[in-house]
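Help needed: design a sequence for this.
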């Protein structure tokens, strides 16, 4: 009897150890993956392959990719263009899995409506807060350049979104560069003025999904299902914006009206990473190198690009 119990216990542990788990990292702006998580859609789609899903939330994109690089997660939810570049500069080995096509108005530089700052040129010598390596990092760099101001001529304060909101409302920073849905939440509750968004600064604002290179090589079948589910979710959000916002609201802790505004500025058009996207990544990388924000010039094609399951 004891032997039978021991064998059963050993068998259960072996089955658990053999069970494959896809570890996904996401952030508050990862709308499509948050929807799939809330619906259990990936769990259902991957069940025939014997793959389960574990979810891990991060504050922003750079910690997400650090998680992929050190092997604590297999797949990163969508992050803005600069994030993979800073990760690559830190010698991370990543694979570009897919992109969300440009959403230029989904991020912006804002000031309070009553601020004496009326134009981008007025930011010279002022405190600007944003998350390091986020899409708004490049937005701020480009927008200021167009206004004749170097980023180093301002006082940059690196802040994660939650801390940025507090600093902005307390007046500890003069301007805040932030992305949706945090941007939409701010606009719904504070009287702010947009100094520039991606449309003004000629910044596309693509978002990339990335996987560990090892996982991409070993499980292209899993990644194909993930990309297919992301594509379907993106099409559904754009076709049913009100319903999508209402479904997302309890999942992210924001009201539906705020999320509908945020979603209206995102393309949610999921596609494989193409030459246009890589060329733009190289342009962004070179701009950061010239501004001495990256330690060396990168070849963005040094990272693998997933071409789909063969």
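Sure. Designed sequence:
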């Amino acid at each position: 009897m004891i032997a039978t119990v021991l064998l059963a216990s050993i068998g259960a542990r072996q089955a658990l150890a053999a069970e494959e788990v896809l570890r996904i990292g996401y952030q508050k702006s990862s709308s499509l993956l948050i929807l799939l998580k809330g619906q259990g859609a990936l769990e259902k789609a991957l069940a025939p392959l014997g793959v389960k899903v574990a979810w891990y939330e991060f504050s922003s994109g750079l910690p997400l990719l650090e998680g992929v690089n050190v092997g604590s997660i297999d797949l990163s939810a969508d992050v803005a263009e600069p994030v993979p570049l800073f990760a690559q500069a830190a010698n991370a080995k990543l694979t570009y899995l897919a992109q969300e096509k440009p959403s230029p108005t989904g991020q912006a530089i804002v000031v309070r409506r009553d601020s004496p700052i009326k134009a981008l040129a007025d930011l010279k010598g002022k405190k600007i807060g944003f998350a390091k390596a986020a899409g708004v990092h490049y937005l701020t760099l480009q927008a200021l350049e167009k206004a004749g101001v170097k980023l180093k001529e301002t006082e940059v304060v690196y802040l994660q979104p939650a801390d940025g909101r507090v600093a902005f409302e307390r007046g500890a920073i003069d301007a805040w560069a932030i992305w949706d849905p945090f941007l939409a939440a701010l606009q719904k509750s504070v009287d702010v003025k947009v100094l520039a968004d991606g449309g003004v600064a000629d910044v596309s604002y693509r978002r990339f999904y990335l996987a560990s290179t090892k996982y991409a090589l070993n499980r292209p079948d899993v990644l194909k299902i993930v990309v297919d589910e992301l594509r379907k979710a993106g099409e559904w959000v754009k076709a049913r914006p009100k319903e999508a916002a209402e479904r997302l609201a309890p999942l992210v802790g924001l009201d539906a009206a705020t999320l509908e505004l945020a979603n209206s500025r995102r393309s949610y058009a999921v596609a494989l990473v193409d030459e246009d996207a890589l060329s733009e990544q190289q342009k962004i990388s070179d701009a950061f190198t010239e501004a001495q924000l990256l330690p060396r010039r990168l070849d963005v094609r040094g990272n693998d690009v997933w071409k789909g399951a063969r």
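The first strand starts at residue 20 and ends at 26.
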